[in-house]
């Protein structure tokens, strides 16, 4: 049986047993926050449970490295929509120790792409078109600095309401211990 078949079979039982009732909530976050964190498998539940959040408390945005790679990309859009359309009043940016994006080797990633059939000419066309694959696929060397850099992107965005606190955290994926990088209340600008 394939993964997809397993998922679909499980879903039939989930619906029949009305397990969804355990997760009913509104689309507005109860704790009025939107959180950006990494897609690391260790954080699927840990990222919210370690902070005391339950289903419906927070809007959750996940990507590789908890990184805003472009100020007008989907991650920043999600944070802005969380604030302006979905009732969030605070942002949490939470990186984690032992992140796969920390020191990722772009040459290895490109090599794997080529092994899986991406042609060298495709990579050359992208680079010739001005796409910096080292930046696009690259990571960071210091998770704390990455969190700070993301906070700066948010605060410097022309569409961002500077009265919204942006908190910076780093979580240990083994213990759930959280380190405060920035208290967003200390940086907000009063209206």
From TrEMBL:
Residue sites binding Zn(2+) per the record: 38, 40, 96, 99
Enzyme Commission numbers on file: 4.2.1.1
Keyword check for DNA repair: no
Source species, domain of life: Bacteria
A Pfam entry, by short name: Pro_CA
Co-factor binding details: Binds 1 zinc ion per subunit.
Catalysed reactions listed for this entry: hydrogencarbonate + H(+) = CO2 + H2O
Single GO MF descriptor: zinc ion binding
Keywords: Metal-binding, Zinc
Similarity comment text for this entry: Belongs to the beta-class carbonic anhydrase family.
Protein name, per record: carbonic anhydrase
Organism of provenance: Macrococcus carouselicus
Upper taxonomic lineage: Bacteria, Bacillati, Bacillota, Bacilli, Bacillales
């Amino acid at each position: 049986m394939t993964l997809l078949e397993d998922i679909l079979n499980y879903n039939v039982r989930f619906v029949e047993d009305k397990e969804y009732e355990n997760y009913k909530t509104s689309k507005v976050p109860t704790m009025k926050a939107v959180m950006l964190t990494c897609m690391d498998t260790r954080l699927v539940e840990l990222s919210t449970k370690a902070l005391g959040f339950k289903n419906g408390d927070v809007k959750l945005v996940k990507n590789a490295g908890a990184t805003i790679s472009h100020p007008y990309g989907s991650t920043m859009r999600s944070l802005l929509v969380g604030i302006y359309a979905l009732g969030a009043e605070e942002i949490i940016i939470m990186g984690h120790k032992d992140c796969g994006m920390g020191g990722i080797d772009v040459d290895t990633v490109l090599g794997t792409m080529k092994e899986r059939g991406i042609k060298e000419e495709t990579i050359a066309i992208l680079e010739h078109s001005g796409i910096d694959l080292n930046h696009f696929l690259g990571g960071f060397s210091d998770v704390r600095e990455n969190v700070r850099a993301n906070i700066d992107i948010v605060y410097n965005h022309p569409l961002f309401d500077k009265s919204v606190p942006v908190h910076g955290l780093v979580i240990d994926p083994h213990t759930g211990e959280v380190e405060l990088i920035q208290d967003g209340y200390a940086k907000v600008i009063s209206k």
